[in-house]
Amino acid sequence: MSGTIRLLIADDQALVRGAMAALLGLETDLDVVAQVGRGDEVVAAALQHHPHVALLDVEMPGLDGIAATHALRKALPACRVLVVTTFGRPGYLRRAMEAGASGFLVKDTPSAQLAEAVRRVAAGLRVVDPILAVESLMVGQSPLTEREQDVLRVAAGGGTVADIARATCLGEGTVRNYLSATMSKTGARTHADAVRIAENNGWLLGETLARTP
User: Fold this and answer.
1) Sign (positive/negative) of CA torsion 60, 66, 70, 72?
2) Residue 29 binned pLDDT confidence (cut-offs 50, 70, 90)
């Protein structure tokens, strides 16, 4: 696109958000028009400031960056999304692109490359970290069901089977069955190892869902 590209930056770390805004603001064709620190503030800020590109972190309070991407693309389709995150996990990349993101980069990307990525996304192109793209193809989609992810998210906090059962509204026997299934699907020896594998692959992002089995 021609002319100045208007940007919205969403990141829960104020220093990171400010540094990114300052670096991108040095580019003559980029203008940071809004900054927010929560995922659930993204849509309102975008509707108020009408950015061309939104740079979103993944893990934010209120609403994670992938859910915020989906909400923003629905509320303001003209605004493209570039996910810029510390958490370069294959599962996050896959889910971000499925949610409508046009790009996915990690935060240690040099500022010049980040600025160029913004321009490419604004022009309607896709920009994806090449290493993550290969890892995403190798890892594939999550083998875990939503309920299995729920159980592992609670297990990540170190709770007992009884704790997990209360948090997920399941029986303790059902929780044990789900934990066993996650270990089998991830190739883990313990449920703690299953949590680690799932987190490293980006399969546990999101809120625990309280629903019937």
Assistant:
1) positive
2) very high
> Does residue 207 surpass a pLDDT of 70?
no
| Separation of alpha carbons 201 and 213, rounded Å | 25
Q: What is the CA radius of gyration of the chain?
A: 19
Q: Report how far residue 118's alpha carbon sits from residue 23's, in angstroms, rounded to the nearest whole number.
A: 12
SS3 letters across 28-78: CCEEEEEEECCHHHHHHHHHHHCCCEEEECCCCCCCCHHHHHHHHHHHCCC
Integer Cα distance of 75 and 97 in angstroms:
17
> What domains are defined for the chain?
5-138 (3.40.50.2300), 146-200 (1.10.10.10)
Least confidently predicted of 34-43, 101-110, 146-155: 146-155
- With contact defined as beta carbons under 8 Å apart, do 205 and 96 qualify? no
Q: Check residue 69 and give its pLDDT.
A: 96
Residue pair 48/34 in contact (Cβ under 8 Å)? The answer is yes
Residues 6+ apart with CB under 8 A from 192: 155
